[in-house]
Design brief:
This protein has 341 residues and is α/β, with parallel strands linked by helices. It is built from 7 helices and 19 strands.
């Protein structure tokens, strides 16, 4: 029997994946997987189970009343999980916390497979997952426990879903707990991971995309670009990758490779430091071509340190830029903090 992968993204950023059989209602599949989605009547009457389908194909069902789900709500992507039957993989945003649904973060173990320093500025950490390839949405992150101390660090996947070999782009911080551990750790060292997490992930692609990356905030975009390339996406995608110093520009060859794999992909690198001889200096907002904003018919994704995120938001406000959607994630490299919207 055909089945579909359903990703529930809860309000607290926790994401759980389940399999839903062809013809099965999402609410039933969730209960079968011990996830108690909000519900009351289960008959399409009360509207308690209303969620947002962010991607995928599905049948809304025809056994619900307008008070539970209006035509306008359905057109806006809202669904009743007690009625909805998927006909493809779907991503569903659940407007409550994972705890309220009696589920929580997934955990998995992995082994260090490769550690590659880049320019004394960043490290690519490759891990081999001990069990099956972890499911996640491109752009999401995990918390990695730092061995030997009661701390964790949050890193976005730079690799695409579906692989047991997963990768992360980590800013090298002198004295940082993870940077220091990675210097000491050998191939074969064990790590514990929690996730996937976060609401910063690639939504269904219907419009041109503008990706804005700051420093190691490049990581989630590498995951997204790989997914787009595997899907043979013809959509226009423009990436602006801004860094502070010349040596912070890493993995440009990997980005360049997507020019060949994605027919409508372009990118620009930008360096902020005044002493740089880079052809584009300054901030990403100074190198944002009008055509990339496409008069607002664009979905914008932004990942970088808080000052960069704030600067882009201010630029959009000051210049009345109103993209179709704007998703951003702030990260602070030397803490566990991640904040998304
Ligand atoms: Fe009442 Fe779905 S649970 S409409």
């Amino acid at each position: 029997m055909a089945s579909y992968s359903i990703a529930f993204n809860f309000e607290d950023g926790v994401t759980r994946f389940i399999e839903c059989n062809h013809g099965e209602k999402v609410l039933d599949a969730a209960f079968r997987n011990k996830i108690n989605l909000p519900m009351d009547c289960s008959d399409g009457v009360c509207g308690t189970c209303k969620c947002r389908a962010e991607s995928g194909a599905y049948d809304l069902g025809d056994d619900f009343i307008d008070d539970a789900l209006t035509t306008d709500e359905a057109a806006a992507g809202l669904v009743l999980t007690c009625q909805m039957k998927p006909s493809s993989d779907c991503v569903i945003a659940v407007p409550t916390s994972s705890v309220a649904c009696k589920t929580g973060q997934g955990k998995f173990a992995a082994t260090v497979a490769k550690v590659t320093p880049h320019n004394d500025a960043a490290i690519v950490l490759e891990l081999e997952v001990d069990a099956d390839a972890p499911a996640f949405l491109p752009g999401q992150y995990v918390n990695i426990d730092v061995p030997g101390c009661a701390q964790h660090r949050s890193y976005s996947f730079s690799s695409a879903p579906g692989e047991r070999r997963i990768a992360f782009l980590i800013k090298k911080i002198p004295g940082g707990v993870m940077s220091s551990w990675l210097v000491r750790a050998g191939i074969g060292a064990k790590l514990e991971l929690t996730g996937p997490l976060g609401s910063f992930y690639l939504r269904e692609v219907r419009l041109p995309l503008l990706f804005l990356a700051g420093g190691t905030g490049l990581a989630p975009f590498l995951s997204m670009l790989e997914v787009l390339a595997r899907e043979n996406s013809q959509q226009e995608v423009h990436l602006i990758y801004g860094v502070t110093r010349d040596l912070d520009l890493v993995l440009v060859d990997e980005i360049e490779a997507y020019v060949k794999r994605l027919p409508n992909f372009t990118y620009a690198t930008v360096v902020a430091e005044t002493a740089s001889s880079h052809p584009r200096k300054g901030w990403v907002t100074q190198h944002m071509p009008a055509e990339a904003l496409n008069s607002g018919d664009v979905d914008v994704y932004l990942c970088g340190p808080p000052p960069m995120v704030d600067a882009v938001r201010k630029y959009f406000d000051d210049n009345a830029v109103r993209p179709n959607s704007f998703h951003y994630e702030k990260f602070t490299p030397n803490t566990a903090a991640k904040e998304a919207a």
